[in-house]
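Question (not urgent): is this output format expected?
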Amino acid sequence: MTFKKIVVLDKVLLTEQHWKRLHELASEVVEFGGLSPDEVFEKLHGEMEVEAKPMCWTQLAVDAVSVEELALRVHDADAIITCWTGIPDDLLRRCENLKYIGFWTNIVGHRVNVELARERGIHVTRIPDYGTDSVAELTFAGMLAVSRQLLRSHRNTLSGQWPYELLKSGQFVPKVNEIPTSLLLGKTLGIVGMGRIGRRVAQLARAFGMKIQYYSKHRHVKQDELGAEFVDLTELFATSDVVSIHLSPYAPPRQINADLIRSMKDGGIFINTSAGMLIDQEALFDELKTGRIHAFLDVYEGLPPKKVIKSVSTLDNVFTYRSGWYTKEAITYKGDYLLGNMQRFLTGDRSSAVWDEPEEEEYITEVPCPKERAGV
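Got this back:
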């Protein structure tokens, strides 16, 4: 059994083998989506000032199309592949032939009304886990970059300012307690949110010889399993040398507030590779400007605030943008899972439906905020 027509609404990344397999699953495959690079950045920078920010800022650079245009693109399709393009309720009602929607991502509640899709007999799937190792490894890459001041060392090496030579020649001999770099060994890591990624970060932290404490709504990690101790959020921020955020994007906005950020230890490192809107970003940057704490950030409340980042980038903070998931291994796995979902559907296996999958603990670490429905 195959699909009659698959419409790919976004420029998803698939290997040549994946594309070959995809074409074997349908009589016809049609691709849409894709602005030019200049159009993307013009659109992004124009929308940075938008007041009403969507839940997912990855949607901003998507070529916005009307429901009417979407309906023309998918009117005769029985399967859709999408990632950033939301599927409005009206489209679900219009498409009589549509049987399947496959998302090339994990969070879909704000992109499609899964209950309405179910009522309409449309099977919706997602990829629940593809970046656990990628995000966990980036978390430690950032942690090490900040704790060992790799960016400063890189700049010094390029400019010929070598602290080792200054020490050897006796021109600059710091006091030992003034040496800015430090080991992770023996430090306390506070993990906020113990889902898949949080647990993987804890496993890596054990290999570095760190003491691990965590906060989660559910005390689901035994101390003898990961060597992690449960503490409340206030204690975690006040006593951790490194704080790493691993909550769901559906957790309440700005749950990590100014008081928690200000309570961090002098010299503490703040890491966020989950979702920017969970943090009081203004309070965090205010604290970074003092130089009292440092940070590695891969996500922001909106797009990266360039001016603010530049103002604190010389203070041994490290900034990237949505690099956590972006590895060849994670993307290859996404393609495997996407096609596996579709093949299971064609063989009559409905176990991969969004509504049939048990929620992972990382998605219910905190009470979810109301999910915005695309097109509602």
